[in-house]
Amino acid sequence: QVQLVESGGGLVQAGGSLRLSCAASGRTFSIYTMGWFRQAPGKEREFVAKISGSGGATYHADSVKDRFTISRDNAKNTVYLQMNGLKPEDTAVYYCNADKRYSSFENFKFDSWGQGTQVTVSS
Q1: Contact 19/73 with Cβ under 8 angstroms?
Q2: In the chain, which end has fewer C-beta atoms inside a 10 angstrom radius, N or C?
Q3: Cα of 70 vs its chain's centroid, Å
Q4: How many angstroms separate the CA atoms of 26 and 65, rounded?
Q5: Taking Cα atoms as reference points, which of 57, 72, 60, 56 lies closest to residue 19?
Q6: pLDDT per residue over 73-104, tens digit each?
């Protein structure tokens, strides 16, 4: 079981940037697909991006493609989400999660979530 802690959120103006981090415990971090999700007030949680265990494959939701980039550093057991060109509609609590499967990761029903990190984008 991987323990996850998200950080890096904050308040930023539209057009600004933030980098989120998700630190994972455990010695087998590199075998896990990692991903970011977000949940805005009054809305369901939605998939944002995923990255394979090696980092060789990534996939971003259409809503963030060309603005957000997921990456990972397996030596640091950390996955990142670089967010550029932020928009007010990106305001949400951002969560990371992990699974050994890559395919359909974005559709999994995860059993647990961390505390997330709040991102607020002002117009």
Answers
A1: no
A2: N
A3: 7
A4: 30
A5: 72
A6: 999 999 999 999 999 999 999 999 999 999 99
